[in-house]
Amino acid sequence: MKKMTWRAPLLAMMASIAFAGCSESQRATTETNNNTAVNNINPDADTVTTETNANLVLPAPDTTHQVEKRSKTIGWPAGKMPVAPAGFTVSKFAGDLKHPRRMYVAPNKDIFVVESDDEKKSANRITMFRDTNSDGQPDMREVFMTDLKQPYGMLVMNGYFYVANTDGIMRYPYKEEQTKITAKGEKILTLPAGGYNHHWTRNLIASPDGSKIYVSVGSASNVGEYGMDEEKRRANILEINPDGSGERIFASGLRNPVGMDWQPGTTTLWAAVNERDELGDELVPDYLTSVQEGAFYGWPYAYFGQNVDPRRKGERPDLVQKTLVPDVPLGAHTSSLGLEFYNGNRFPAKYRNGAFVGQHGSWNRSSFSGYKVVFVPFQSGKPGKYEDFLTGFIADAEKNEVYGRPAGVAELPDGSLLVADDEGNTVWRIAAQ
């Protein structure tokens, strides 16, 4: 097996950017032969180096891989809960929800939960929770919005409440302490709706200075099989002005970049990305990565650097050569969705400035992967290898039974963590003892 080394590429297409301090993941693949570095556009897999793993083994791609092992949700029995590490407690923050997918904590500390699902099953609403006495449990619950279109991302900024529906971004006049929105609102950006295998989610995050909004849009397909005309403005993170104008592609080749957050103390955007299916049990790993302005991350032509997807062999060698290596591999088919950097100080010191990732769980793998929340520690601004944080969602793997499936994660002002369990119709709260 050949050993590949990774060096930072010179991306002439990039202008000088404000998002500094994240060059560690700005890497492309080269192969050294007779002391000469040549572009390696070899579809055979190899040993690769990421920010957190110097010897990540990617097996050869198997285009005949059609394995399906889909989970069946049986619900949580009385008294049963997910399991956190020693020193933490788990409690039910909210129940009787309909597929709670993501949470957003507003500046006034109100907690908004999106209840959203595939088109024919979606509740299409947002429920608001308020903890008026700061005891870690909500004492107010209100249906905040209804009749939405598979909502996911939410944002409060400049007197507006923004909602990312699957087909576009809406904004509504909003005042703090408001418990319901019934106004029609305005559509500030139209987006391509739906997408491959639950890629209907559209996330939102504002820039640290509030001058821009970033919008994640997943692919329409697994690997471009419907033609690339169907992928226009997809598999991207878009940048817009707060009024919806000025759209441009901030980063591309990100198959389904669902979770987004800013690394604490920086202006570096990070994303949790779902990678492609049907190349094998161990291909392709989902990942957490810093997102470089103007960068290309491979989809659908390559993955984890210049490893060519054999289903797109010979296409766009220019983009293959520009493909960056993501920072943190999170395991193949884990469906890594939610992302939240920990800014608080209530958890032990190792968790501070690290990232939590909600892994919804696999279907295209012989045995389950994901179905848990993992934690990625950061030291001196650089990520380490991920570790399990919240487990216990799998009831019986042999029977394909699970109690629930984690998705979004959010930190509360008191330093505890919320986890949206969409299949369990529950939001869990994890607090340090």
UniProtKB/TrEMBL annotation:
PROSITE patterns: PROKAR_LIPOPROTEIN (PS51257). Residues 1-20 form the signal peptide. Keywords: Signal. The keyword Signal applies. InterPro entries: 6-blade_b-propeller_TolB-like, Beta-prop_PDH, Quinoprot_gluc/sorb_DH_b-prop. Residues 83-430 form the Pyrroloquinoline quinone-dependent pyranose dehydrogenase beta-propeller domain. This is PQQ-dependent sugar dehydrogenase. It comes from Pontibacter rugosus.
